[in-house]
Structures are given as structure tokens and as C-alpha cells.
């Protein structure tokens, strides 16, 4: 449990009954939330070649995220005006569980997420061959 959150069903009994009321926290961050700060943060992520490891317990997948600078040729070819793009690496699926129904649900959730991602959300002008199999979609 973190600040300003209540416990889940399993942790309800560990919270005192009168201590779960939200208080105004005085831990406000004094950082500005504007485009300049986001651009500086993104630039530093790219410059330092930081990689963030992501693991989804719900989908049982893991991967690493890093940022890559777009070259001028990429900008011209794809008509994409973004300076950076996200690079996903070391994708790993772990749909093995002791409970078979849980494994089935995880596979279904994963396939639903794949359909959502590979239907080219927001890129309706891009003409490409559809990826039919899951292996084609991941490569």
C-alpha cells in the first residue's frame, strides 16, 4: 500500500479502522509538468541508454524498453515527425502456470492485447501486409 491508497481485500485487516481516511498530503513535487521537462527527461533517457525492464504479471510477459533517436531518413520515409521512438526488446512469454484455467485466461488476454496493438491504432494510412500468425506479429 502506498500513500493515499487503501488496502486490498487481503490487507484490509491490517489497516486500523480510523486510519484509512485520505489526508491532504504535503508531499507535492515541485517539479514542473511541461513539455520542456518531458523533453529533457526523454533526452537523458536516450543519452544514458537507459533500459527499463517491464514485467506484466497479468499477461505473464516481460520485455525491455529503451528510446532510439530517429534518423532523417526515417522521418522522411515514414512521415513521422517524432524525434525519438520506443524500442521494445527481449520479449518473453511465460504462459506456464500450475492452474490450467489461469494459463488459458492469460493466453486469451495476451492475444486480445496483440489484436489491439497489431490493428495499427492511429495509423490507418499505413499500407502493409497483415501479420497472420503470432510469430509474424512478434517479428
Amino acid at each position: 500500500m502506498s500513500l493515499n491508497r487503501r488496502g486490498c481485500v487481503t490487507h484490509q485487516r491490517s489497516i486500523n479502522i480510523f486510519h484509512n481516511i485520505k489526508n491532504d498530503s504535503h508531499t507535492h513535487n515541485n517539479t514542473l509538468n511541461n513539455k520542456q521537462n518531458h523533453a529533457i527527461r526523454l533526452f537523458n533517457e536516450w543519452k544514458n541508454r537507459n533500459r527499463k525492464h517491464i514485467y506484466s504479471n497479468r499477461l505473464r510477459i516481460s520485455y525491455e524498453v529503451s528510446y532510439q533517436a530517429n534518423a532523417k531518413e526515417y522521418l522522411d520515409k515514414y512521415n513521422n515527425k517524432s524525434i525519438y521512438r520506443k524500442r521494445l526488446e527481449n520479449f518473453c512469454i511465460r504462459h506456464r502456470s500450475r492452474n490450467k484455467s489461469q494459463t488459458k485466461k492469460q493466453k486469451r488476454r495476451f492475444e486480445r492485447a496483440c489484436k489491439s496493438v497489431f490493428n495499427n491504432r492511429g495509423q490507418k494510412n499505413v499500407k502493409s501486409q497483415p501479420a497472420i500468425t503470432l510469430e509474424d506479429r512478434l517479428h
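Residues 86 and 124 are 20 Å apart (CA to CA). The longest helix spans residues 100-118.
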